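User: I'm putting together a teaching handout on how sequence relates to shape, and I'd like one worked example. Could you take alpha-L-fucosidase from Amycolatopsis dendrobii, show the sequence you're using, and then write out its predicted structure as C-alpha cells right after it?

Assistant: Happy to. First the sequence, then the C-alpha cells directly below it.
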Amino acid sequence: MDQAGISRRSVLAAAGAAGLLGLTATPAQAAATPWYPSAKFGVFIHWGAYSAAAWGDAKHAAEWYLYAMNVTDPARGTGTRDHHLKTYGADFAYDQFIPRFTARRYNPHSWVRLFEQAGARYFVLTSKHHDGFQLFRNTASDRNSVRLGPGRDLVGELFSAAADTRLKRGLYYSLGEFYSPALGTAPRNPYTGAEIPYTGYRPVTDYVSQYEHVHLKTLIDHYDPDILWADGQGYHEFGGGPIFRPKTWDWRSDEILAYYYRNAAGRPHPKSVLANDRFEASHADFATVEGDNKKYVLRPDPWEACLNIGKSWGYNENEDPAKIKSSVQLIRLLAEVVSKNGNLLLNIGPREDGTIADWMSSRLLDMGRWLRINGRAIYGSKPWIRAMDGDLCYTRACGAFNLIPLHWPDGRLLVPGDVPINDRSRIRLLGGHSRPLPWTRTADGIVIDLPRHRTDDFTEEFPAVLSATDW
C-alpha cells in the first residue's frame, strides 16, 4: 500500500467509462448495472513473498520488508534492517524468502467460505505487490508463483473458487516496484551495496508496454476481474532509495483502462467493472482513502476506506497486540464509513502457507454475525443529508430510516428533531423484539425508549440499529 490523494471523479458504469475513453457503448452495454455502490463491505488480501518474511515494526509494515531492509537512517526506522541482519545475515537476500512462500495449506474454497460468512460482497487480492512478485502465470516475467515458490496459480485458484458465488472478484496490482532493473533501480545488497539478481526477471526495454501492460492484460483476459485496484504509482523516497517510478513517467493508464472497459462492454452480456483512482488516468470509478486516523467525510460519489485490522497489511509475527482493532471497533468503522456513502475494504494478511490467523478470521466472522442481523441498514443503503450527529450514524435503505448509535445508550436515545421520523413512524430494533419502541417528540428532539437489555445476542459494546418506517 502507499498513500495517495483523493480523486473527485464520479463513478461510471463500464459502458459510461468506455465512452469517456473514446469507446462506443451500445444501449445494451449502457444497461450494465454498477454493483459497487450497494456492496458496502469487501475483504482485502495482502499475500506474497513478504508473508514468509512475516516481520514489521512500528515504522514499517511487514509487506514493506524489502524496502525497509534498505533504510539506513535511524530517524526513518532501521528496525527491519537490524532484524534481518541479526536473524538471517548480510548475505541473505530478500528473494530467498520466495522458496519459503509455499502456500502448502492454501485452500481457496475455505477463504471464499470465510468471506461469505463475513458478509463481504467482494474481495481484492494482491496479484503483485511492491516487491514485484506475481501470484499468476504470465509471459512478461518468471518472478511469479507458478515458476517459483508455491508452483501454483494463486490468483486463478481463488477466482475459480469464487466463480459460482455472489462475491465480486477484484485484483490489486502495484504499477511500480520497490526495485527493478527496468526502472533504473536494480536491487542491491542492503549491507554491502553490491548489485544482486532480481529473481525471475526478464530484461525489457520498456517497462510499461513490455511488462506492466502485459501483466494487466493477462489479468483482464484470463481472470476477468470486477475491480482493478492500482497502487504503487508515484515517485517516493523514504530513506531506502527512490521507489515505484522515475519522477517523470507515464503509465499510459488510459490505454489499459480502455482495454479493460472494452473487454467488459463488448460481450453478449456486458458487465460493470471498476477501477480505483490510483492509475494516474483520466478516469476513476471510485476514490480510495487508505489507513487509520482518517477524518472520513460524506461524499456524493462512491469511495472506499481500505483499512487494516492491525498495523501491517501482510502477515506480521511481530504485530503489536495494542494495534489490533477489536470486532466492535471494526463494526463501528463500517457503520461510519457506510453512513458517509463509502465502502469498507477490510484487509487480512494470510501466513505464507495460506492459513489465516484466528485473530483475523474471528473478526471477520463477528462482522458477518452482525451483518446477518443488521445488514438491511448497510447493504444497498444511501446516506441522509447528514452522516452523523456525535456517535449516531444514519443510513436510508429498504424504505427505512436507520439510526446506528455506535455506543448502546442507557435507557433512552435522544435523536435530533429534524430526522425523518413522523407521527406515523414505527421504530424497531433490528434483531430484537418485533414490537415498536415507544418514542416521543420533545423540545430537545425525539426520545426513544430502549429495552433495558440487548435482545440481539450482542454485548452492549456492539452498535445496534434502530429502523424507523412508516408501515
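A couple of points you could highlight for students: The longest strand covers residues 122-128. The domain at 388-469 is CATH 2.60.40.1180 (Immunoglobulin-like).
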